[in-house]
């Protein structure tokens, strides 16, 4: 299927590796010029160089998009460097080292870090991207939530759950604001994804997680990329304000044994 994305320009945050890179890969495969944002400059530049060797138009936009000044600079640099900004994929986030504590034990700094890197960054990049898209009369914004947004799952991730629930609500409201301008805003809600992080799980933990899933496995990175590319396409022009689960059917309470 031709998604009609050739010639578009996209900014993907947190895209030097993992889910963000998979999203960038899928868009690039459809002929989209990509701006790779990350705080890891070396990894971002390495990713961009690999794209360029493959004949893909790509630029690096280094910065912490949870910071207002950095977010504004990154969005404007992406628009200027690509010559346009049609697509924004909000994927930036922080690591598990800021999770794992019960609410009463959680450091305020860990709460702030997760809320800022996931939710605040989505707000900031969206805020600064909308004017570019409104002037063009076209835009696609895809936010990264999680099946954790319902509050299901193990304890010790209250900051992560709050951030992902916030992204789900944020998505719905912004979609109402910008739909009249030809801009759609949607979110994806992955379950466990096959990444470098989950590869480090013990065999016992993996058995519990996959055993709780009707499909019996983790989500693949290419499956996330394919969904994001579709949501950015012309064919998805009437999908707006929606959160799409990628959980193999496991969208109720789940537990990973910890």
UniProtKB/TrEMBL annotation:
Gene Ontology molecular functions:
3-oxoacyl-[acyl-carrier-protein] reductase (NADPH) activity
Q: Which InterPro entries does UniProt cross-reference here? A: NAD(P)-bd_dom_sf, Sc_DH/Rdtase_CS, SDR, SDR_fam
Q: State the name under which the record lists this protein.
A: 3-oxoacyl-ACP reductase
Mention one GO biological process in which this protein takes part, according to its record.
monocarboxylic acid metabolic process
Q: Which Pfam families has this protein been placed in?
A: adh_short_C2
Which keywords does this Swiss-Prot/TrEMBL entry list? Answer: Oxidoreductase
Q: Which SUPFAM superfamilies match?
A: NAD(P)-binding Rossmann-fold domains (SSF51735)
EC code(s) of this entry? 1.1.1.100
């Amino acid at each position: 299927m031709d998604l009609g994305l050739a010639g578009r320009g996209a900014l993907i945050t947190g895209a030097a590796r993992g889910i963000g890179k998979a999203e960038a890969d899928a868009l690039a495969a459809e002929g989209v010029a990509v701006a790779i944002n990350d705080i890891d400059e070396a990894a971002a530049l390495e990713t961009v160089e690999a794209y360029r060797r493959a004949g893909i138009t790509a630029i690096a936009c280094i910065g912490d998009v949870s910071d207002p000044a950095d977010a504004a600079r990154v969005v404007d640099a992406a628009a200027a460097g690509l010559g346009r900004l049609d697509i924004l994929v909000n994927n930036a986030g922080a690591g598990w080292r800021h999770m794992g504590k019960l609410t009463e034990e959680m450091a305020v700094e860990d709460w702030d870090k997760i809320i800022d890197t996931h939710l605040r960054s989505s707000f900031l990049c969206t805020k600064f991207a909308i004017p570019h898209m409104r002037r063009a009369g076209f835009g696609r914004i895809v936010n990264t939530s999680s099946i954790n947004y319902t509050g299901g799952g193990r304890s010790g991730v209250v900051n992560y759950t709050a951030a992902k629930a916030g992204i789900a609500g944020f998505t719905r409201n912004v979609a109402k604001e910008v739909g009249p301008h030809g801009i759609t805003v949607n979110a994806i809600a992955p379950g466990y994804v096959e990444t470098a992080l989950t590869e480090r799980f013990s065999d016992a933990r993996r058995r519990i997680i996959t055993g709780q899933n009707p499909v019996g496995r983790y989500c693949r990175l290419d499956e996330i990329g394919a969904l994001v590319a579709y949501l950015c396409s012309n064919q998805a022009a009437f999908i707006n304000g929606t959160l799409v689960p990628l959980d193999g059917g496991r969208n109720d309470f789940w537990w990973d044994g910890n």
